[in-house]
Amino acid sequence: MKVIYPIFLCLLCCALIGCNSEPFEVISSDLKPEVGNALVSVSIPPFSRGLIQRVRLQITSAGLDRIRSIEREMNFPIPGGNLASGQVTDIPAGKRRFTVRVFDTLGEIRFRGNADSTITSGETQLVQIELGRIGGQIDFKTVINFSAIDTTSLDRTRLMSLPSTSVLDVLELVSNPSHNRLTILPLLSVGLGGRFTVESNGSLSRIIRVSQVPTGRRRFVAHLRDLSSNGTLALADTIVTLVDTLHITEAVFNLKQVRSSSALLDIFSKTALPSDSTVVVVTSVF
Q: What domain range is 80 assigned to?
């Protein structure tokens, strides 16, 4: 009994102390995550304004740390210009990558660009992003076949020596644009300067490669104009071709002589070009 009594007394004291003890307090940290803001802007090429429907921004880490991807829709178009912009708040501080993707009316990506910027806690960074056109490559081959041309008014010698003022315009014909007058997207405008290759059958040809053409089934028109002829010498043709990123697509224009503006519309007619549209040549900025 002398041995058991001290043990019992000890257990009783522990029980009493335990009954009077209070639960531990959980103290939360006063530290708040370091976040900043960004004002992002991007200039949409003016010749494609009617083609673009959505501009989407994605923010990811550009360093060794990891953050949850942030995605936002940017405002476009802003009235009076071709600028798309968006303000994003609560971005984790650190080096961040801002990626912009620009979609057309069919939901396909037309342009993409990115820029890195360091976000500082409590501050707003201004981020400007330059866009690049994306897609596959096309070798546009323009062919002048004399069998399709009235040589009584336009002989071989004149075609072979087209002056440096001759210009070849290649344009894409766009389906379902956001505005019915914005159905043509200028792709290239280049001076030929009489530089042609003579084919084995006697026809003339010229190949121009264009990169970053959006993939899919595309419709193009080629319009060869001699600026020194006061509008009396012009040739044109339209084609439909499939563009992908695995192969270089060859697109062949068999140019036909244009004798009037109505004849030019007849050449365009198989592409369902609206009758009130006109060809506006704009040199691409890319």
A: 35-133
Q: What are the backbone angles phi and psi of residue 263, rounded to the nearest 5°? A: -65, -35
- pLDDT tens string, the chain, 286 residues long: the values are 455 556 555 655 555 555 555 565 655 556 678 999 999 999 887 666 567 888 999 999 998 899 999 999 998 876 656 788 999 999 999 999 999 999 887 787 888 999 999 999 999 999 999 988 778 889 999 888 777 666 666 666 766 666 677 888 898 887 765 555 557 778 888 887 667 788 888 788 889 988 878 788 888 999 888 877 776 778 888 899 998 877 899 999 998 877 666 655 555 544 433 333 333 333 332 2
For 8, 149, 228, the CA distances from 232, given in Å and listed in that order, are 119, 14, 9
How many independent structural domains does the chain possess? 2
Which of 109, 133, 157 delimits the end of a domain? 133
Do 141 and 261 belong together in one domain? yes
Long-range contact list for 267-275, CB < 8 A, 24+ apart? 267/221, 267/236, 267/237, 267/238, 268/173, 268/221, 268/236, 268/238, 270/238, 271/173, 271/219, 271/221, 271/238, 271/240, 273/173, 273/183, 273/184, 274/180, 274/181, 274/183
Q: Where are the beta strands (DSSP E) in 164-231?
A: 166-173, 184-191, 197-198, 204-213, 216-226
- Two tokens, residue 64: 């060794």
The two beta strands, 184-191 and 166-173, are antiparallel
